[in-house]
Specification:
The complex is a heterodimer of chains A (263) and B (328). With 263 residues, chain A is mainly alpha-helical. Chain A has ten helices and no strands. In chain B, strand 4 and strand 5 form a beta hairpin. Helices cover 34% and strands 28% of the residues of chain B. In chain B, helix 3 packs across helix 4 and helix 9 packs across helix 10. The chains are: A mainly alpha (263), B alpha/beta (328).
Chain lengths: 263, 328
């Protein structure tokens, strides 16, 4: 019997990515419900009801919208990698047919991160116009800094997908609920999504404690890109921190994946 | 002809799982881990139907795991279809097809998509992948389930889908890990026919099983393994010749049979007697003559016989001689 011809890794990568996108497309309504309902409900309460009642200041929407986009991006990226990983490495090891693909196994993990970023972008693009619609005109909203917006979206998505890879491969399936209440929920609340980081000047301890939270940089980055007139963290600090966090999460994510993939 | 598989001194030690210590408890004794595979040397020829026969926990699945690049060997060397499993794992994966112990289809995809996507991971273009998928579904008798969800398939149908998937990139070597476990007799026979057909096409097949009959019927050569060690390797018929010429008599008593075994050793015609709990195994060329003295010896030691089983020389008796235990 003759040997099959070698396949280029990029071709295999695209084939596996196409598989994930095919499955994701079928799950799209559930995916959007799971990842965007919570941010959108927040938009309704804090961006529509409370301003109507006159209980929050008019410029709160401008500070909150970028945070909501960041939150949708982060939540969907982390979930769209972590949840399938739990199933893929679960009882039947469904991921095995991809692990048997003729490429380095790390490529299968990197593909997961890329698929997570793409799904994060879909969620963010879904939430942005709906939020704008609910909240009405937003003072200072601009798309002029498109380059920065794209960079923050890709870096933030990558950081959270890689975190999802780590959580999904490192946590026992029974503890997946715990992951959301102990890791994801505090991350949302203390991630400067609902309030700008500069506003924490009023609570100095918090201002520095939240810096370990990757969501802070995504939210501040979105503010720098979308509503730059709102006081925000220095752009270089944001990008630097996101680069470092992405590198760290990719590293621990790949390690954890490799441990599950090969015994 | 070259070897399809070649291993030398293959060894796998899994780290022992540390038990949780209570506070203040003394540290556990140092453990060297669990030896799943101990110095395995195997050579499987191109086009051969090769069987790995052994009880659960013998190291069969670990062997398949190493040969399919899913388990890292602790030491030793393994070459599959000309590629080294440690240094060229992607090349190994290109040339092998794997049918796992438990069907693990991609549940996010339909039956036919499972095959098309799998082929695409190996660089097969979509039209060709679709053509192959339809041909395979037809050949394996699940064409009517083409567009169904995989959850709609029965266990036997899922197993056939796994075989179709393993073939969809036309590999040189096919690994099957206990492919017939959990199948009803009819599905098992159907699977045997499929495997014979694959073998006739010139593919190398490596199959693990703990069913004697299956190994005997299908395999060109058989390796008998137990506790990570290779105990015997030959064609099924030569292995049967190696089986002790004696008949095996197994007597189950209503209590420990050790005393009966000692007494039985002095009975004329008994070539070997050994007790394992309440079971006494007697090897004898004259089963009819020794039976009643043994029963009498049992009664003399206060034990009554509950069950008697007599079997002629076979792979089963060889296995018991080699390992001291039964396969299933």
């Amino acid at each position: 019997m003759t040997d099959p011809a070698r396949v280029s890794p990029s071709k295999v990568f695209l084939a596996i990515l196409l598989r994930d996108l095919t499955v994701a497309r079928r799950e799209l309504p559930y995916f959007l419900l799971r990842t965007t309902l919570q941010p959108l409900m927040f938009v309704i309460v804090f961006g529509f009801i409370l301003p109507k009642m006159g209980m929050v200041r008019g410029d709160y929407s401008a500070a909150m919208l970028p945070g909501i986009i960041a939150l949708s991006l982060a939540l969907s990226a982390v979930q769209s990698v972590a949840l399938p990983m739990v199933q893929d490495f679960g009882f039947t090891k469904e991921i095995e047919d991809r692990l048997l693909a003729p490429v380095a196994m790390q490529l299968v993990a990197i593909e997961k991160i890329v698929a997570g970023v793409l799904q994060g972008i879909v969620a963010a693009l879904f939430v942005l116009p709906i939020s704008r619609l609910i909240m009405g005109p937003i003072h200072g909203l601009t798309f002029a800094h498109f380059g920065l917006l794209l960079a923050i979206t890709i870096l933030g998505g990558a950081a959270f997908s890689a975190l999802g890879l780590f959580l999904g491969t490192g946590i026992a399936p029974q503890q997946i609920g715990l992951m959301f209440s102990v890791i994801v929920a505090p991350m949302i609340m203390f991630g400067c999504a609902y309030y700008p980081w500069r506003g924490l000047d009023a609570v100095p301890v918090m201002k520095y404690a939240v810096l370990i939270n990757p969501l802070v940089y995504v939210a501040e980055g979105m503010r720098a890109a979308l509503t730059p007139t709102i006081p925000h963290m220095n752009v270089f600090a944001i990008v630097g921190a996101l680069l470092a966090l992405t590198a760290f999460f990719v590293w621990i994510g790949l390690r954890s994946f490799a441990k599950r993939a090969v015994s | 002809m070259s070897d399809a598989i070649h291993t030398r001194a293959l060894r796998k030690v899994f780290p022992a799982i540390a038990a949780k210590r209570k506070r203040g408890a003394p540290p556990p004794p140092p453990s060297n881990g669990i030896v799943a595979l101990d110095s395995l040397d195997l050579d499987v020829r191109e086009g051969e139907f090769f069987g790995l026969l052994g009880p659960n926990g013998a190291g069969k699945t670990t062997t398949i795991g190493i040969l399919t690049t899913r388990v890292n060997a602790t030491s030793g060397e393994a070459v599959v279809a000309g590629a080294n499993v440690t240094t060229q794992p992607a090349d190994v994966r290109l040339r092998i097809g794997v049918v796992p112990q438990r069907p693990n289809p991609d549940r996010g995809l339909s039956v036919v998509e499972n095959l098309i996507f799998h082929a695409s991971y190996f660089g097969v273009a979509r039209t060709e992948a679709t053509r192959r998928a339809d041909a395979l579904l037809e050949r394996l008798g699940i064409a009517d389930k083409r567009d169904a969800k995989v959850d709609a398939l029965s266990g036997g149908q899922q197993q056939r889908l796994m075989i179709a998937r393993a073939l969809s990139h036309e590999p040189r070597v096919i690994f099957l890990d206990e492919p017939t476990v959990g199948l009803d007799p009819q599905a098992r026979l159907a699977l045997w026919d499929i495997l014979r057909e694959l073998h006739a096409q010139g593919r190398t097949i490596v199959m693990t099983t703990h069913y004697m009959e299956e190994a005997d019927q299908l395999c060109d050569r058989l390796a008998i393994v137990d506790q990570g060690k290779l105990l015997a390797l030959d064609t099924p018929s030569r292995l049967k010749e190696q089986a002790p010429g004696d008949t095996l008599i197994e007597l189950t008593f209503d209590g420990d049979a050790e005393a009966v075994a000692i007494a039985a050793q002095s009975i004329a015609g008994v070539s070997r007697a050994e007790a394992k709990g309440a079971v006494l195994r007697i090897f004898s060329a004259h089963a009819g003559e020794v039976l009643s003295p043994i029963i009498a010896a049992g009664e003399a030691s206060g034990r009554n016989v509950c069950d008697i089983h007599v079997s002629g020389p076979s792979l089963e008796t060889l296995f018991i001689t080699l390992t001291g235990r039964k396969l299933v």
